[in-house]
Amino acid sequence: MTNPAHLLADAVTVSHGRQVVLDEVSLRIDRGETVGLRGPSGSGKSTLARVLALLHAPDRGRVSIDGTPVAGVRHAVPVGVRTRVAVLFQSPRAAADPRLRLVDLVAEPLRAIRTPERAVRERVDELTDLVGLTPDLLGRRPHAVSDGQLQRACLARALAHRPDYLLCDEATAMLDASTQAHVAAVVTAYQRSRDAGVLVISHDEPLLDRWADRIVDLAPAAVRDRRPAGRSDARVDQLCGSASSAGRLSMNELTEKTARPGPAGP
Ligand SMILES: Nc1ncnc2c1ncn2[C@@H]1O[C@H](COP(=O)(O)OP(=O)(O)OP(=O)(O)O)[C@@H](O)[C@H]1O
């Protein structure tokens, strides 16, 4: 039976100028599952994440949530819909307003929808506790914290609206092994508490093997173009994927394994 609760990019095509970056690509993330997405640099992984996060409108194709197509992107999407998907990017410095104290950074999405200040403070306390940000860090601005501390704040911000789908775009690539393990463990614990669907984009094969339930390969558009004649629905999973299955790990296993880099590990 088809699981009705899912985030789907359906036959999505995206071009930047004359460059076709995604050509009828489809990717589905079910609630509760962790999908790994890998592919060469420039193959369009981040572009696909931005489409799924309702930040970038595809030229063709569509995004749907739980079977309902989403019209538009960003603020054109009703708040109750767009807050169901959150994204955590690779570089917390690029994603954070340098003028904001960490406490305000975490509160940003709540204040953006005019959440009453008392509820903002309560939720920020929960979130900073969840990601392990100590009170002394909350009053600092991004320049005065480490990349790892700032990424924890960005993770707290991403979880502010309790998204059903969390897209992690190389979110642990810049972090040391122990912070990487911590971020992965927080994401996994959150996923279990909400039955959230998680997308993990990474070049780190051991990390994907440990973390993802299945792995999808995104080939460059030129390679995808060599699909069998007559196929109009170029599903990444079917045509480009060497979908592998990594058994789901407990949070402790994930933490332990991620914290202990192997020969090819982070
Ligand atoms: N805003 C933009 N304007 C023009 N070209 C862009 C834009 N964003 C991305 N591209 C191009 O689209 C292609 C895919 O980029 P994207 O960042 O999605 O790839 P990626 O697979 O995530 O790469 P990486 O693994 O290096 O992060 C690249 O050739 C990139 O230069």
UniProtKB/TrEMBL annotation:
Q: Give the top-rank taxon of the lineage listed in the UniProt record for this protein.
A: Bacteria
Q: What are the GO BP annotations of this UniProt entry?
A: transmembrane transport
Record GO terms (molecular function): ATP binding; ATP hydrolysis activity
Keywords of this protein's UniProt record, alphabetized?
A: ATP-binding, Nucleotide-binding, Transport
Q: Give the Gene3D superfamilies listed for this entry.
A: P-loop containing nucleotide triphosphate hydrolases
Q: Where is the composition biased (Basic and acidic residues)?
A: 224-236
Key word ATP-binding present in the record?
Answer: yes
Write down the InterPro entries for this protein, in alphabetical order.
Answer: AAA+_ATPase (IPR003593), ABC_transp_ATP-bind (IPR050319), ABC_transporter-like_ATP-bd (IPR003439), P-loop_NTPase (IPR027417)
**Family, per the entry?**
Belongs to the ABC transporter superfamily.
User: Would I find Oxidoreductase among this entry's keywords?
Assistant: no
Concerning SUPFAM superfamilies, the annotation shows: P-loop containing nucleoside triphosphate hydrolases
Q: What is this protein called?
A: Peptide/nickel transport system ATP-binding protein
Instruction: Outline the segment boundaries, as ranges, of region: Disordered.
Output: 224-266
Q: Where is the ABC transporter domain?
A: 7-245
